[in-house]
Specification:
The protein has about 160 residues and is of the alpha+beta class. Helices cover about 35% and strands about 20% of the residues. The chain has helices spanning about 5-15, 25-30, 35-45, 80-90, 115-125; strands at about 65-75, 95-100, 105-115, 135-140. The protein has a four-stranded antiparallel β-sheet. The two termini are about 15 Å apart. About 15% of the residues are buried.
Length: about 160
Amino acid sequence: MANLDRTDLRILAVLQGEGRITNAELAERVSLSPSACLRRLQRLESEGILTGYTAQVDPEAVGLGLQAFVRVQLTKHESETIEHFVEHVNTWDEVVACYALTGDMDYLMHIYVADLQHFSRFLLDRLLNASGVADVNSSFVLRTVKRSAALPLTQLEH
C-alpha cells in the first residue's frame, strides 16, 4: 500500500468529485501552493495511485436505459475455460464491469443495454454461446439508489 498522507487523500477526494478542476483551484482547496500541488499530483500519477481521468455519462441520455447484473457460472474451473471466458467478456462493450466471485456463481457482470430486446440479443447471441458458460442468472435494475465511482478515502485519514 502506498504511503499517503492526509493532503494526498484530500487531493484524491477532490479529484474523484471534480476531475476537471484546475491545479490552481485544487491547490487552494487542499491548502498547498500550485507548484507543491502539481508535484504531489505528478507523484500520485507516476506511482499508479491516480490512474486516469474520465467523464461520467448519463446512460439514459445516450440511449442505454436498461442495466442488469448477470451472474455467470462456468462449466469447468480450469485455466483454459476461465481464460476463454475472460477473453470474451473483454470484447463485449455491454459489460462495463465483471468480477470473479466466491460462492455459488463464478462471475458477476454489470451490463448496460438499450432495452430488453438488446439484452436478449446479448444473452442469446453472445453470453450463452460463449463456451464454458453453464448457468446464467440475471437481475434488472429498477432504480438506482446510489451510484458512485469514488472510493471512501475519508476513512483512511489518520
